[in-house]
Amino acid sequence: MVSEALKAALTLEKEGISIRIINVSTLKPVNEKIIKDMAAGAKGIITMEEHSVIGGLGSLITYILRGWPVPIECIAINDQFGQSALSYESLLAHYKLNSEAVVNTVRKMMKK
Question: What pairing do the DSSP bridges indicate for beta strands 72-77 and 45-52?
Answer without folding.
Answer: parallel
